[in-house]
Amino acid sequence: MDLISQSENELLAHESAIEAAVISVDHERWQERPVAYIVTKNEVGEDDLREHPLKEVPRWWLPDRFVFSEEIPRTSTGKYNKKVIRTSFNNEYGTLPIETNSDHPDHDQDRA
Questions:
Q1: Exposed, middle or buried by CB within 10 Å (0-12, 13-18, 19+), for 6?
Q2: Nearest by Cα to 92 from 8, 46, 23, 20
């Protein structure tokens, strides 16, 4: 399983998560970084989601940004439409700046 699928599965394990789609977007320094689109059943903050224990995903792959949505676009077959999600993100936010919360991608640090 790839990091994007693992990230989605682990975010879905959060008690407030209903849907979660993770995409990679352009980043000024690291070329690409993860961003999570998430639908929740109650109000939850980015910090709460970031602190949710991830078992299979390296620390450096934690999403740099969480976009809260009422629904996540899907294809006609029911899969997340990553192309539409990525285009929407790029139109609204553009490239992620260097000042994101990401650790250096070359270092897989264990979460304490």
A1: middle
A2: 23
